[in-house]
Design goal:
With about 210 residues, the chain is α/β, with parallel strands linked by helices. It is built from nine helices and four strands; from the N terminus they run αβαααααββαααβ. Strand 2 and strand 3 form a beta hairpin.
Length: about 210
């Protein structure tokens, strides 16, 4: 994931501010390069390959056991070192696991960003994890009772379409605007409405830190 430029951050922040001016709801945008390091699968495959290597040598050669053992250790070390390459770790991790980890991180961020504490339970999280090509919109209970799930699916479809074309800033701006219109329809601004949560783009590191 390329770093967001100051211009991109400013444009996304402005989009959130515009959207929230029309509603009592709150919109938070969180992005992550990846939702997990996926080291467990890289280690698992390294161990399996290291276990397989000695068998043909034992059956087909007369190599001393010490040589075979050293080759086994070398195989494991090589595979672990090769596994430090993130695209390879993703390649050996099942897609279903990647989606599950990304969804888990999205839920964690919904709680970490205090979206569940808004008045009226009208918080919306837009979460994108680039390594997994994963996007999700999570809305609080107050919204889910009034907005059909297909609405959020349309937001995700629009966002991912822009991400695929490389226009990520416009993708976030469009998605934020769509969420703002939905919230404005069901949750108009109140007389004592205030901005409860930050409007800036939140960028995580791979392990969840900001």
């Amino acid at each position: 994931m390329l770093p967001f430029t100051p211009e991109e951050r400013a444009a996304i922040e402005a989009a959130i501010t515009r959207a929230e001016a029309q509603t009592s709801g709150e919109i938070v945008v969180v992005v992550a390069p990846a939702s997990d390091g996926y080291w467990s699968f890289a280690l698992m495959w390294s161990a399996l390959l290291a276990l397989v290597v000695p068998l043909p040598l034992i059956l087909a050669t007369k190599w001393p056991v010490e040589y075979i053992y050293l080759l086994q250790l070398g195989t494991f070390a090589f595979c672990v070192a090769f596994g430090s390459y993130e695209p390879l770790r993703l390649a050996v991790t099942p897609r279903s696991i990647q989606r599950a980890r990304a969804h888990q991180r999205a839920v964690e961020q919904f709680l970490a960003q205090a979206l569940h504490t808004t008045r009226g339970r009208t918080g919306v999280l837009i979460y994108v994890s680039f390594a997994e090509h994963y996007a999700e919109v999570i809305a609080d209970d107050g919204i889910y009772r009034q907005v059909r799930p297909i609405v959020w699916e349309e937001v995700i479809a629009e966002l991912t379409s822009h991400l695929a074309r490389g226009t990520r800033d416009q993708g976030f701006i469009t998605a934020i605007g769509m969420c703002g219109k939905v919230l404005a329809e069901h949750f108009p601004p109140g007389h004592a409405d205030k901005d409860e949560l930050p409007n800036h783009l939140i960028v995580l590191d791979t392990y969840g830190g900001v």
